[in-house]
Every structure is written in C-alpha cells, then in structure tokens.
Amino acid sequence: MDRFKVTKKVGILGIIANLFLFIVKIIFGLMSKSQAMIADSFNSIGDVFASLMTAIGNKIASCDSDEDHNFGHGKAEYIFSMFISISILVIGIKLLYDSISMFFRNNQVLFSWNLILVCILTIIIKLSLYIYTKKIYIKEKNILIKSSMIDHRNDTFLTTGVLISTIFAKYGIYYIDYLMGTIISIWFLLSGVKLFKESYNVLMDISLDLETQEKIMKTILKDKNIIKIDDLHSVSIGYKYIVVLTISVDGNLSTFNSHEVANNIEKRITKRFDNVKEVFVHINPI
Question: Which positions ≥6 away from 170 have C-beta within 8 Å?
C-alpha cells in the first residue's frame, strides 16, 4: 500500500473512531457534569476535524505535478496540518477558560460507573489507534499521520486523567476534575504550538538539517573529480527536498565528463537519501 493510500485509511479510521467517542463522551459527560469528560469529548470532536483535514490534505498532496505545480502538491500536507494545529489551539483556549470558570463556580461531578466504562473504552480504542498510526508513521514519515498519532497518544494519557478524576469524585474530592480539565487544555495548547511550528517551518521553505547536509557533502566528496563544494542549498517541497549544489572540478575536464560527474552526484544522492526528490548541480571549472 503506497504512502497516500495508507494515509487516507488513517484519516477515515480516525473520523469514525473519534465521532463515536465524541457522542459517547458528551452524553455521559453532561449526565455526570464532569468538566474533564466534557473537555475530553471536545478533544474527540477536534480529532474528527483533524482526521477530516488529514483525509483532505492527503487527497491534494497525492496529486501529480502539473504545469502550475512543477514539483507536485506535497506542501498540502503541511497546509492542512497547520489547520489542525490552529483548531487544537482554539479548542485548548476555550477548554482552559471553561475549566477555570467551573473551578470558581464549584461545580460538583456526579460519580457514575458508566463514566468509568466510557473512560476505559476510550483508552482501549485510543491506545490501539496510537500503536497503529505510530507503526505507519515510522514507515511513511507523513506529518498528517504524525498529527493523528500525537492525538491518539495524548488522548490515551488525558482520558486516563479523566478516569482518575472520576474515581476521586466518588470520595467527594472534586477539585481533581477541574485540575484534569486544565491539564487537558494546556496539553492541547502545547501540542498545537508544536504542530504549528513544524508545519510553519516547511511552508517557509526550511532547509535540510545540518546533519543531513553533512552526510550529503561526504557522499559528494567521494568523487575524486570534485575539488570542492562551493554551495549547498535546499528547499522543502513537502515531505521531500530539492537540493541545489555548486561544485568545482578540474577545468581540463571535457564538457561531457563534467556533466557525467553532475549526473552521478544526482543519482547517488537521490538513491541514498529518501527525503531528497531532485538534485540540481552547477559546475565551476577551475
């Protein structure tokens, strides 16, 4: 299964699972007046939106290059992951406000065994989804899959927090519920900022990391025809990069041989580095 088909599967699966969890959580959250569970339910509806953005972004990113987009539509992944990060930030701010307000109003949570069962069900589903998406992300390195993976991981821990607050409510300790609601909100904000930053960097044409650049230069300098590397520039076009090189070679080399050097570099780099889509080489004869 290729990169785009498996991402589509992740998006659709996320929509179904999170929509189901939202309905269950909001019903029992309102019945029990649990702010933490209500907050967690909005987490799920936020995840429905995130999964929808994953499916749409993946659909656009899978389109081939054309006259208007010579290097394809790969950045769509990062545009839609930025939408996801903004939605996470908006929901996080709203939930933080609600949790603090509930604390000052001194709302009390009604303990319910149904609420406990909802938490356990959520943890099982989310942990399973996290393991599934993590396995795919390790293979595909798709930021849309990564955002889904982070959501599932966070939900596993956060719903565990809701479970703890619900158990404390049985013994009349209600402030834990507001505390957990606040923690959920802060976790939202931190996750949103991190995802936004990663998406922003790619959309602003961030270069390859220094470690990868050094590996590329070492690969290039293995060719004895190359005297030195004058420049190495790179630009992201989604999850892959375009590398632009300027190298110096012996001025006595024929034009044909100089081009052969450039062609060999291009083939060697694109073969070794999966995140490099194309390499352009400029030759400086010395």
Answer: 111
Give just the sign of the alpha carbon dihedral 61, 63, 68, 72: positive
Range of the domain at 107: 3-203
The pLDDT assigned to 72 comes to: 81
CATH of the domain at 56: 1.20.1510.10
Strand order in the sheet with 226-236: 226-236, 241-249, 276-285
Whether 111 has a pLDDT exceeding 70, the answer reads no
pTM for this model (two decimals): 0.73
Please tell me whether residues 141 and 199 are part of one structural domain: yes
Which residue, 246, 247, 241, 248, is CA-closest to 270?
241
Check whether residue 124 and residue 215 sit in a common domain: no
**Sign of the C-alpha dihedral, residues 62, 66, 68, 71?**
positive
pLDDT at 206: 87
Pick the closest to residue 200 from 285, 48, 81 (CA basis).
Answer: 81
pLDDT at 132: 92
- Spatial separation of the C-alpha atoms in residues 162 and 209, rounded to whole Å: 39
C-alpha 193/C-alpha 82 separation (Å) is 10
Based on the fold, state whether residues 43 and 178 are members of the same structural domain: yes
